[in-house]
Amino acid sequence: MSEEKAFGMPENKMGTMSLGKLLVQMSLPMMISMFVQSLYNIVDSIFVAQISENALTAVSLAFPIQNLLIAVGVGTGVGINSLLSRRLGERKPEEVNKTALNGVFVTLCSAVVFVLIGIFVPRFYFESQTTNTEIIDYGVTYMRICLIVSIGIFGSITFERLLQSTGKMLLSMVSQLTGTVFNLVFDPLLIFGLCGFPKLGIAGAAIATVLGQIAAMIVSAILNLTHNKEINFSFKGFRPDGTVIKDIYAVGVPSILLGSVGSIMVYFLNLILGAFSTTAIAVFGVYFKLQSFIFMPVFGLNNGAVPIIAYNFGAQKKQRIIKAVKLASLAACCIMLFGTLVFELFPGFFLRFFNASDEMLSIGIPALRIIAIHFPIAGFCIVFGCVFQALGEGIQSMIVSFVRQLIVLLPAAWLLSLTGKLSSVWWAFPIAEISSLLMSVIFLIQVYNKFIKNMPD
C-alpha cells in the first residue's frame, strides 16, 4: 500500500520540495505583501502628519491598543497555523478541518471583545497619557473606529493564516495586497476630501483602515472557499471543541502575550518620552512606522518558515527542520543589515516625509541611528522565535519578549532618562536586544535537545 493511501491524504510540498526553493516560494509572497503593508503604514502616518503634529502624536499614542488588537489576531492565527500544519504533517484530515472551524469561531469571539473595548476604553486611555485636549479628541475618534469595526482585521488574519498553513502563500499575498491597496487609495480621499469624498480628517484615516481590512477579509475568505481544498469549511453541525481550542491557544496565548507585552512597553515608554516633550512621542511613533519597512519582510519570512518547520516536525524530518532554520536565519540577518544601513545613512530624509519640524529632526535623527544598531540581532531572535512557535513551544517566545521589553528595555530607558538627555533613552533598545539574543540561544538549545536531537536523520 502506498504512503499516500495509508495515511488518507497526499504528501504536502512542505515535506518534499527543495528547502531553498520552498522557503522562497512560501516566504517571498508574504515578504512582498508585508513590505507593501509597511509602506501603507508609513504612507498612512505621512497623511496624518499633514493634519498636524498633534494628530500624528494621537496616532502614536493609539499604537499600544492597536498593537494589542493585532497581537490577539496574529497570536490566534499563529496557534491555528501551527496546529493545522502539524495535523497536515501527521496526515489527519478530520483534525485539519476541526482546527480550521474552531479557529474561525475563536476569531469571532475576539472581535466581540474588542468592540466592547472600543465603546468603553478610548477616552480613559488617552486621558491617562496626556492633558492635551486636541490630542485626546483626535485619538478617541481614531481608536473607536478601529476597534468597533475590528472584525475585518481579525477575519483577514485568520483566513490568511489558513491559506499559509496549507502552503498557499501566493493567495495569502493577494488577500493582504487587496487590503493594503484599498487603504492606500481611500486614505487621501477620506482624510482630505478628494474626488467628491467628504473631508473627514483623522476619522477618514481610521475608516480607510477598517474598510481595507474588511476587503482583505472578504477576499481571503473567498480564496479559502474556492482554492483551499485541504480544508472542508462546512459549519453544518459545528460545535466548539474545547480540546482543539486549547491546543490553538497553547501556542497562541504565548504569542498574544508576546504582542501584548509590546503594547505595555510602548505605553510606558510613551510616558517616559512624554516627560521630555510630545514631539519625542511623535518621533517614537514615526520610528515604529519606519522600522516596519524592515521588520515586516522579516515577519513575512517568519510566516513562511513556521508552517515548513511545523510540517516537518509533524513528519519527523530532522535535517529539513535544521536546514530551514539556517536558511531563514541567514535571510533575516541580510534583511536587517540592509535596514541598519538605511537608518544610519538617511534618517533625516525619511523623517521629512512626516512633515518633521526642526525639533523633530533634532530628536529623530540620533534616535533612528542609535536604535538601528540592534536590527541584525533582532533578525536572529525573530527566527528563533518562529522555531519555538512551530514546535508548539511558544512559551519561550513569550518569556524572551517579556524579559526584553519589561525587565530590560523599560527599566533601562527609565534609568537612562534620569541623565536628562533624551538621546540616552534610545540606547535601551540595543541593550534589550542583546539580552533577547542570549535568552533565545539558550532556549533554542533546550528545544533542539528536547524535540529534534533524537529524531532519525
Description:
With 457 residues, the chain is mainly α. The protein has one domain (15-452). It has 18 helices and no strands. The protein has helices spanning 3-7, 19-51, 53-89, 93-120, 122-127, 133-148, 151-165, 169-192, 202-227, 242-274, 278-314, 318-345, 347-351, 358-371, 375-390, 395-417, 422-425, 428-452. The two termini are 24 Å apart.
Integer count of domains: 1
Helical/strand content category? mainly alpha
Number of helices: 18
Strand content: under 5%
Task: Summarize the main sheet.
Answer: none
Characteristic terms for this protein:
single chain, 457 residues, mainly alpha, 18 helices, 0% strand, disordered N terminus
Give a quick summary of the entry:
By secondary structure, the chain is an all-alpha fold.
Could you outline the blueprint of secondary structure elements for this entry?
Elements: H1 3-7, H2 19-51, H3 53-89, H4 93-120, H5 122-127, H6 133-148, H7 151-165, H8 169-192, H9 202-227, H10 242-274, H11 278-314, H12 318-345, H13 347-351, H14 358-371, H15 375-390, H16 395-417, H17 422-425, H18 428-452
